[in-house]
Write a structure and sequence with these properties.
- The structure is a homodimer of 537-residue chains.
- The first copy, chain A, has 537 residues and is an alpha/beta fold.
- The first copy, chain A, has two domains: 259 residues, Aldehyde Dehydrogenase, Chain A, domain 1, CATH 3.40.605.10; 185 residues, Aldehyde Dehydrogenase, Chain A, domain 2 (3-Layer(aba) Sandwich).
- The first copy, chain A, is built from 14 helices and 23 strands.
- In chain A, the strands form six sheets. A seven-stranded mixed beta sheet of chain A has the order 16-17-18-15-14-19-20, with helices on both faces.
- In chain A, helix 6 links the parallel strand 10 and strand 11.
- In chain A, helix 2 crosses helix 6 and helix 7 packs parallel to helix 8.
- The longest helix of chain A has 26 residues.
- Chain A is globular and about 70 Å long.
- The first copy, chain A, starts with 14 loop residues before the first strand and ends in a 5-residue tail after the last strand.
- Strand 21 of chain A pairs parallel with strand 20 of chain B.
- Chains A, B: Keywords: Oxidoreductase.
- Chains A, B: InterPro entries: Ald_DH/histidinol_DH, Ald_DH_C, Ald_DH_N, Aldehyde_DH_dom, Aldehyde_DH_Superfamily.
- Chains A, B: This is Ketoglutarate semialdehyde dehydrogenase.
- Chains A, B: It comes from Candidatus Saccharicenans subterraneus.
- Chains A, B: Pfam families: Aldedh.
């Protein structure tokens, strides 16, 4: 079956339902593609028909209560064991991920993304065992007690193409968060890296077994039709959906899910504007230009936090900076786009910007090659042009593509900021000592603050640290809800949690987190208005 | 204008836009009705056409950033001053509320609901000034800092008919929460109590003035068409919607809002099931029956937490309890329904239950009277019948109406619990000493836990204390998101907050809550994993 030939649906890899790898009820099949060669990879994967989804839903429903009741130690053990097993299979997994995504094997997959994934799983395990994430809140006088707990339904995860490991549907932040909060999960693989997902799911299943959690806690389907996706997310058994991907697909899923009363957490699009104030460009235009390019081209421009919009002034320092940027963007850079679809979308974005009157300063063409490659591309327009049609000029496209907006004056820069859609991030680069920069900052910051989740100073947005203080989210259309983050533990758990209140319930019937005795001696609880790690006396 | 006659739209009361009471662009007018007499009240109110909504939106947008930047002391002063001014006008407000709702003046409006409203505003003021609600989370090593902040858009509040004071659109928990989180608000009055709302809005405007907040921070419209409502909640300037009311209307608003990427917090419906285990009914059937009736008939059965579904066993104690209940429900009880619409809805619910085969044990008829009165009504059905069509038997209807479901055995009771929709609350009554009750509880609790926001033991659900540990919310369709509460401060604020992250931002540019020095010396912050009130050193 590994020779690349197609011999019927029977040749397709089995899906994971109810803890068993079983043949799919496939109506179609698909193969991943090596972006470096443009060639299909040999493994054949099924596009599941509805009966597969229905089976997975029934299984998920069957174990929902058992997963919800699992003690934190079991869930912690699962997450830690999973991390251990993945580490044992690191070579096979990263090799497969490299084949399927053409992301650099050593510098990216092995040294950066794999450790990040492992770290995330271990942080989630630690947070589950620590228990503070549930924000136990106790009113001893009224004997009312609340904590976060499971949703009581399935979480469906749709994962993106750009992080085959750290945001993989079966091992990423969404999976870790949904299970940590006590929910069963149905995962849809990204069709760009089914083999990577399959290898990881094998470790996942073994980890469930070792932790003695129900085998149906996490199930895996590789692909299904958009219509079956809508049917899935609106199903009775489902409580929430996590989606990271394109805005168009995300909005359709969002509508289907929310119409049925399901929670939808979507990471939909972001152009991550970076504002350059005059002082910093006077001081170090070249260093900043290199920093910007390095961030913009990271992962071949396929980060949700890629700085895609640059705002600067039409003054001498600004023009010199743009000139420098143009030179840097005009140098050839190796790197592959993740798929033909990403390439086509990038081409379209370039044509759209051209048609809208943006000036092409660098790149703009596909690199003739069997793999998916595109020149690093830089556009520019005036602030006036931007303000005439702000929507057109802030559409996300993967690839090393950026648009510089050149403002004539501070007022225009402020109006550009006011016309931004919701974004994951915004950065302001300013001098540490220039009073003019400080003055502009004071006007610009309050506008940007309300438009984005994370505001950075003199820093590019692409690094998203896994810290409890991180926020990876933002006002619509960046994400569906600006109060929730998909990165950062334990805050990411809260997307998949309901608030459980106990009113006049006696001690021995309460969950451990709400009893007089602190269950592990170190979890934080808010008791009568004071945060404490002590028992209640 | 107070003689009840209608002399053109000019006679209609002005609306509050941009801090000025101004004539509405009205296409229609309406009058409130005294539910005790069925007569229209003299004051005439406008049904605003779109230009009014547009003006309010423009004003709201204009002040959005200023409201977002207002220091906590100003917002706290507003909420406290508002409470003071309302207290000065207590007599006029409660008298008007009594006229418009026929709720008992002394026992309900003056002694209970008015103080609750005042208490809520003052608690909100204290929480804003205390600042802990923003959950400042600081990672000193990475210099990443996050807190909750304003949404950056307008909050639209649609308030219910049943609490003219404590959940009034201009003074209830939603208003206090939305303003506390730093958002401008557009309020739609409930057309059942426009006069009460008007009187309170006068105090509100004066409080804004005294606190030196923008006069457009809170604006008031009395009424508009459903279509204009959909247009309003999907408008660019709007960030979130708070709705408490009927499920049908709520779902339509939810769809319109969410399709446009707005947050929707709806309290939509709940039947608040109460389970009676055999032991407690053996011990004190009569006391418990009286307790149930008292809760069910509170506010004439017009509480969102009214116990509307009773589940018990077909054993001797159960049958005796039901017999007792039937006697109590058959006694005449004074009290008015809030409107003709509530009366009609109640009649429909009764007909529906009859048609579905439920047995009428008490009441069931309108009381012939000029006011809106209906008999206290009790139905019963078998567990088997319930399970054949669970949807029909758990539809919320205001009024003193309850449906008893009689289960034959524990398994059947569990299946009934499994077939419940999401609810705000569920109660379990059990004996403190009966081991059989305890055994059933252990099976029933995990099922109910995932279906409801608040789980009560031996307590009726109608009391919703304003405590930080309270949770008034639940899985869909009880509310739109089971992680958020509309009662309980400061948790209720979080519905109207975005997470604001600061990455590599220097000390003097940070909001006070995230700087090294604790801004007031007592706010709680999560610094490097530890909750503390100390400065960062």
């Amino acid at each position: 079956m590994n020779d690349g030939s197609y011999d019927g649906y029977g040749a397709a890899r089995p899906i994971l339902i109810g803890g068993c790898w079983q043949p799919a009820t496939a109506s179609e099949i698909f193969q991943a593609c090596n972006p470096a060669t443009g060639q299909k990879l040999p493994e054949i994967y099924p596009v599941s028909a509805w009966p597969d989804l229905e089976k997975a839903l029934a299984e998920s429903r069957r174990v929902c209560q058992e997963v919800a009741s699992a003690p934190p130690e079991k869930i912690g053990r699962f997450l830690n064991t999973y991390a251990d097993l993945l580490e044992k299979n690191q070579e096979a997994i990263t090799t497969m991920a490299h084949l399927e995504t053409a992301l650099p094997l050593k510098s990216r997959l092995r040294s950066t993304e794999f450790p990040r994934m492992i770290n995330q799983l271990r942080q989630a395990a630690a947070a589950v065992e620590e228990r503070s994430w549930c924000q136990a809140t106790i009113d001893t006088k009224l004997n009312i007690r609340s904590k976060y707990g499971p949703l009581g339904g399935t979480v469906v995860i749709f994962s993106p193409n750009n992080f085959p490991l750290a945001f993989n549907t079966v091992a990423g932040s969404d999976l870790a968060s949904a299970v940590a909060a006590g929910n069963p999960v149905i995962c849809k693989a990204h069709p760009g890296h089914p083999g990577t997902t399959r290898l990881m799911a094998e470790s996942m299943l073994e980890a469930l077994r070792q932790a003695e959690l129900p085998a149906s806690t996490v199930q895996l389907l590789y692909h299904f039709s958009a219509e079956d996706g809508f049917r899935l997310v609106s199903h009775l058994a489902v409580a929430a959906v996590a989606f990271t991907g394109s805005r168009a697909a995300g909005l359709r899923l969002k509508e289907a899910a929310e119409k049925a009363g399901k929670l939808f957490y979507g990471e939909l699009s972001s152009v991550n504007p970076v504002f350059f104030l005059p002082g910093i460009l006077k001081e170090k235009a070249e260093a900043v230009a290199l920093e910007l390019f390095s961030s913009c081209s990271l992962g071949c421009g396929q980060f949700c936090t890629k700085p895609g919009l640059i705002i600067l002034f039409n003054d001498e320092a600004g023009r010199r900076f743009l000139w420098k940027l143009q030179q840097i963007f005009n140098q050839p850079l190796a790197g592959y786009l993740l798929s033909q679809a990403v390439l086509e979308n990038l081409k379209k974005a370039v044509e759209k910007l051209k048609a809208a009157g943006a000036v092409l300063l660098a790149g703009g063409n596909q690199i003739p090659n069997c793999g998916f490659q595109f020149q690093t591309t830089l556009f520019a327009i005036s602030g006036e042009q931007f303000l005439k049609d702000p929507g057109t000029f802030q559409q996300e496209a993967f690839g090393t593509l950026a648009l510089a907006v050149v403002a004539e004056e501070v007022e225009e820069m402020l109006r550009i900021a006011e016309n931004l859609e919701g974004n994951l991030t915004a950065s302001i680069y300013s001098s540490d000592s220039d009073p003019q920069d400080e003055e502009i900052y004071r006007k610009l910051e309050p506008v940007l603050r309300l438009k984005v989740g994370r505001l950075l100073n003199n820093k590019m947005p692409t690094g998203v640290a896994v810290s409890p203080a991180m926020h990876h989210g933002g006002p619509f259309p960046a994400t569906g809800h600006p109060g929730f983050t998909s990165v950062g533990i334990p805050a990411a758990f809260l997307r998949f949690a309901a608030r459980h209140c106990y009113d006049n319930v006696r001690e021995e019937r309460l969950p451990e987190e709400l009893r007089a005795k602190n269950p592990n001696g170190w979890m934080w609880r808010l008791v009568d208005g004071l945060w404490t790690q002590s028992d209640i006396i």
